Every structure is written in structure tokens, then in C-alpha cells.
Amino acid sequence: xxxxxxxxxxxxxxxxxxxxxxxxxxxxxAENGLEAINKAGEADVIIMDIMxxxxxxxxxxxxxxxxxxxxxxxxxxxxxEYDKLAGFDLGIDDYVTKPFSPKELMARINAVVKRYKxxxxxxxxxxxKVDFLGHSVYINDKEICLTPKEYDxxxxxxxxxxxxxxxxxxLNNIWNYDYLGNDRTVDTHIKMLRNNLGKYRNLxxxxxxxxxxxxxxx
Amino acid sequence: xxxxxxxxxxxxxxxxxxxxxxxxxxxxxAENGLEAINKAGEADVIIMDIMxxxxxxxxxxxxxxxxxxxxxxxxxxxxxEYDKLAGFDLGIDDYVTKPFSPKELMARINAVVKRYKxxxxxxxxxxxKVDFLGHSVYINDKEICLTPKEYDxxxxxxxxxxxxxxxxxxLNNIWNYDYLGNDRTVDTHIKMLRNNLGKYRNLxxxxxxxxxxxxxxx
DNA sequence: CTAAATTATGAATATTTTGTGAAATATTTT
DNA sequence: AAAATATTTCACAAAATATTCATAATTTAG
Lengths: 218, 218
What we know:
Chain A is of the alpha/beta class and 218 residues long. Chain A is 43% helix and 23% strand.
């Protein structure tokens, strides 16, 4: 489990880091929102201050959220009730008020991590929804029927968001390891998946000379 | 599922309401304990602030509890530890401390609902009814005779509503030990169960390439 | 702009998966 | 032990899905 600690004060980062180590979390650090965005990909949980130079916590959170689905706890100065509400609205998972008790912070991190593991059962983007448990896909609450291969493809894409995948890679991972098939087979399945995705067909992007990737556009 | 939100601050009610909608709960609102008492009858879960004008949460809870048996989560101001203890004594199901994370609140609501549901002894959908205590199944008040395996299958499906279950998973869970049987066995039982379910046969959905799932269509 | 390379697509064909009836076994009840 | 019930197996039909391939459309390099 990797925790990304984002705060401009080294002292605070160090205190949190210390406690994270005790709870067996690995730690990555960032000094501001910009750095956080770059490092978010590696993290399982983010603890982020709101007030930081270069880019504040909320702005960073908004950007990170579009790309990843990482539980985030915000550190706010005492009494910023307005911030708190605004943040919850954005989807922030929890708040800890400065000065905080490290024990409370760790309790909240643990709670959030635990909760998230359970919530990792759906993927949602606008009104496009994939229910991994039910193996079903919805657009506008209307179920979209995918064939097994199409569904597997979609899930693989979602789990590799933003990464360009070669046809070979797709064949190896979704078909059996030593599949001796035609490359065009992938294209055909992509075509069918795209058709079924309707207005979301362009979530699957052609990477010329390379393969395909799944990406949430901004 | 209807959630009764009781708080004198509209802002807080609105935040909770928003999240409830996302989780597909219906919402009823009340501004104080007195109103809550009047509206409690319609609710399946109650979320109630303690400090409210006219009538506080505890007093309202006591009265509601005499009449109904509705799971209740209390919202308390930070640090009112005494209240917390008193509340659990009264039979409150859970506590959330203000200011709270809506995600945490929803997680707790879901937990309470789930717990409460488990204690249910019947499953009802339209005129399809399963009486877990009596091990019997009715359609239109007419009893449907299922074999033990069929009944076990049905109960397992109901307890895993909306979740796609592989044949292997079904074999492992309904056929005790590691059963070394034919996959087609499951199909045969599904067939017979479906036949017995008559017009409700399509509650059991085939998940191609995967298995089956039990789902209430909307 | 053209040729070459790459990708998209429709349709025919092959393959896989599921539904089902009937027979064979196994288990429980009488 | 016989009868009644349940369970399992199996083969084949039916349905759904996967693959191939020819051709069209698109992009890129020169």
C-alpha cells in the first residue's frame, strides 16, 4: 500500500511519514499539487494539504480524479468549514483538521483504504457504468449487452487506463497465452465493442502503428 | 429503500440527500424530532442529528422506537462522547461525527441496511416470495415445490443478488466440498429451477462465458 | 498529391457455449 | 427391498459468439 503525502511543509510530511511507516505503508512525497499529479499514478491513497504553492490541493484533486480513482484525504486548517463542504462535493473521502492527531489521521487512512477496497467494484464515467460484480455495463441506466470477449476487453482497458496496448499484448492477456490468431481479430472485437459503447465509442482510441488505448478525455 | 434525513440545517440535509440519490435511496426529510416522528413510518433507515430545535434526536428516537423498528444512525457533534455512549444504550445502530465524510456516512448506511436485511426472514418480489424460515417458496400464494438443491441454489442466488456467479463458484458453495462433477450439472439444476419459477424464470440471468446471476430488473 | 501502410468494417464461416430431454445413478422414504 | 425422489451424466440441438478475410476507408510519408 502506497501513500502519497502532499504538503509544502517538510516537517508535516515527516510526521505523517513516520506514522505511515509504523502502519506498514510505503510513502511517496510531493510538495505541491503539480508534483502530486505526476506521482498520483503510483499511489493507493493520497493525503493532501489544501493550501500549497504552485497548485492547491483542490485543483490537484480535480485533475487526479479524472485520471485515477484514488481515495483522498484532505488536510485543512482549523475551521475552514466551507472548504470542507466544497471538498466533499468534489468527492474527497475525508478531512483531517490541522493541527491533527496522527493517530486520528492513521485511523482515517485505514478506514478509507478499507472502504475503497470494497467500492472497487464499479467503474463510472458520466453515465457510463461498469458493474464488475454483475458483469454488466450500463449507459444511462440502460444495460448494454456485451459478448464475453467484448466485456473482457473493456475490463482490461479500464484496468489499464491511459496505457497504449499493442494487439499482441491484448491477444496474450485476453485470449489464451499462445494464441496463434490473426491480428485483425483484435480490430474486429474493438469495432464491435465500440459499436456497443455508442456515444462512448471514442473512449477507445486508436494508437496508430501500435494498438489501442482507453482514455478519459478532458 | 427510503432514508429519513433529520437535521435542522438544510445544507447538511442536501449534502446527504445528494449522496443518497447516488446510492439509489429515496429520501424523506424532517427538520426536527417532532417531524421525524410523523414521517418515521415511511422510512427504512433514519439518519438523525442529535441537537435540534423543538425536539432533540434522542427523544425522537425513543418515541419512534416504541412504535417502529427502524435502523437509526445518529449525527453527533465532534467529541460528544457521552452522547455516543448513551445512544448505543438506547439501541442506536451507529454514529457519525460531524463534520462527517458523506462517503463514510453512506458506507455506514449501507452497512446498517445490509445488517438489517440479513435479519430478514423472507424475500419478496411482486408475488414471488421465499420464506427462509419455512424453507418454502410461493408464487401467488401458491406453494412451489423445489428439491433441496434447487432451493439451496435459489437462496444462494438471492443472497448474492446482482453478482455474476461462475459454475465453479456455485459448485463450491452449494455442493459442499470440492465437487468433481460435470459443469453441465449446474445447467441442469438451473433449468429445473427456472422451470419451477414459472413466470419468474428470468430472474435467473445467464451471464455468457461466465455463469449465472440473480437480478431484479427495473 | 500519390503511394504505401495501417486500420475499419461487413459478411461468411467456424467455434464455443448453453438449453434441454432422457436415461442412468444415487439417495431417501415407506 | 421396493418405491419414490433427487441428482448426475450425456448427447445433441439451438443459440450466441469468435474468427477470418476481402474490401473500403483512413492516415502518413515522401
